[in-house]
Amino acid sequence: TVPPDVEYYENQNGTSQGTLLIRSALPSSPIDFMIASWLHLKQPQGGAFNITNIAGYLKPSNDIPHFQFELVQCSPTFLIFFLDLLPRTDIILRPDYLTTYYEDTGLEKLRQRLAALPEVSPYFSSSLYFRKVVSSTGILVGVKCQESESKRVEEIIQEEIGPISKEVMRIWMELCLNNGGRELEEDERSLMEKRDLMIKKKAIEMDLS
């Protein structure tokens, strides 16, 4: 849990509001904790900027990918969407990891489904670190419609982004429930802790920037 003034915050002139929730998992769970945040920023030229973020981080006792969802609505007709199960190991050295968590789960079909929409195009983050962390089935796209088609953006959220996000979340939860992934040896666990810590620190740095 977080303090009340952190759980919900607002600036003095009311142009920005945000919420932050952190929940730790049970000791028996492979999940370490979940974090959810929402930020609303009114723009000086009109309109608003909304960011919704949900992340699930796993314990170093297993190798299940982390869950990451982020939706950034920049305007009524443009948004950025990121959805992924973040790898926690070097896939070049662990091709079985790619098979188990990305090929066998059918994540690529979900990525292709969204990419097929004419309003959707790849979005390239300015952070080279971020690009390296994303999996090969990760969804990182921009959704842009004509100025007169703001309703179309809402349709894409409800009919495509929503269902795809729920399906990826379902896949991730099933992986967590299915014996908690592969149990790691002590030396592997130590490396996993270092890797996870770096990813979490970098994620916080990028959010604050």
UniProtKB/TrEMBL annotation:
InterPro entries attached to this UniProt entry: RCC_reductase
Source species of the chain: Cucumis sativus
Protein name: Putative red chlorophyll catabolite reductase
TM segment ranges: none
Database matches in PANTHER family: RED CHLOROPHYLL CATABOLITE REDUCTASE, RED CHLOROPHYLL CATABOLITE REDUCTASE, CHLOROPLASTIC
Example of a GO MF term: red chlorophyll catabolite reductase activity
Pfam families, alphabetized: RCC_reductase (PF06405)
